Amino acid sequence: MKAMRKAVSLINDDPTIYEHLGDVLSAMGMNKDALDAWEKSVKFHEKEEGLKERVEGKIKNLRLKIKE
């Protein structure tokens, strides 16, 4: 987690870093923070082809999980 936070502080417009941060936060059960990170990832999606669809799927799945 520490390394991910450091990476975000150094490069705050990389969608892949935000995606991975969201993955780590989700695995830790920090769902709101994971959603925030993934939404930032989607914001910068144009930098990586296919990222938007992949991350939007993660957002959708987490929101469904939260509702259960």
Layout: helices, strands, pairs:
Blueprint: H1 2-10, H2 15-27, H3 31-43, H4 51-67
Helix pairs in contact: 1-2, 2-3, 3-4
Provide the number of structural domains: 1
Q: Under the CATH scheme, which class?
A: Mainly Alpha
Oligomeric organization of the protein chains: single chain
CATH topological fold name: Serine Threonine Protein Phosphatase 5, Tetratricopeptide repeat
Give the end-to-end Cα distance, rounded to a whole number of Å. Answer: 27 Å
Percent in strands: under 5%
Instruction: Figure out the total of helices.
Output: 4
- Counting helices, strands and paired strands, the structural category is mainly alpha
Please give the largest β-sheet.
none
What key attributes describe this structure?
68 residues, mainly alpha, Serine Threonine Protein Phosphatase 5, Tetratricopeptide repeat, 4 helices, 0% strand, flat
